[in-house]
Amino acid sequence: MIAIISTKENKKNNISIAKHLENKGIETWNFWKDTSGLSPKEAYRQNLAQFTALIFLINKDALTDSFILSLYKQAFDQGKDIILVMQTRLDTSLPNWFFLENHDWINAYDVSFDTAVNALTDLVKEYQGEKRVNLEKSASNARQTAAQTKSRKQSLLIIIGVLIILGVLYVILNQSSNSSNRDKKIIPTGKKLNPEQMLIGTWALKDYYDDIQRTGKDLIDFQNAIANLKKNFRMTFYPDHTFKRVGFAPQVEKGYWSLDEQNNYLIISDLKKTGEDRLKILTLTENELIFEISSYISPQKVSVVRITLYKLPQKQQTNN
After folding, report:
1. What digits encode the pLDDT tens for the residues 23-49?
2. For the chain, which domains are there?
């Protein structure tokens, strides 16, 4: 059974897609045909286990709808296959790039609705294990990613590593002592600043590295996202052990920071202290921070993510 999730305002498209899939012999579920008498949230929760995959219709309303986002999170946390039907173009940012990179998705904003639905039908059949039918060229263009769920879930481990450095998601750290042959360096200066004093100030993204192979449009989109992050991302550490981060999430983010006793990890948490991220420090100077994360993929594969931040000059920090 395939679940189709959308905002109430998108009900018409939801029902049209359900009808098209059912005409192809594909069983669907959505809030508007559920007859259990339960609330939409409870009906969804009870049926989630039996969904082969979930289709989320993403229009502008869905991007900010807390109910839709909560349903997405439940499906994602349970490892369900998720297909996105993008009815609006997302701006070029690192979070958006990660979002699309880790799901199969249909371009429904540059092609006709019928073309998008045909591409979606073909993709759903792949998830159900059927042999892929031949698509017309226009329908093929609507299909933005290959249905390679296994490799996508592996690459997600690396992607999460990037987000960790920015303090957005949980930390993936390689526990092996052989994960890196680089020693952490804390370099004092003539001012005899301690590590905490070195951190105080505003930092920007200087460099990002991972060993994921990208080609074509994926590579271009990723390069654009990194360029945008270099331009806009700022993280400020204050003497009272609070921090402010801008340019990553839509809203300004604030929280607390500290170093462990050995100065090996930078520890950050949100204002409510609901959890903390421990970021391994490779290099810390007055003007440079380097983090490296080794994400375990398989016995034969360890993927490396390395991020370098640089401190802005004092006159630029006053404007952030």
Report:
1. 989 999 987 777 778 887 888 888 888
2. 2-147 (3.40.50.10140), 171-317 (2.40.128.370)
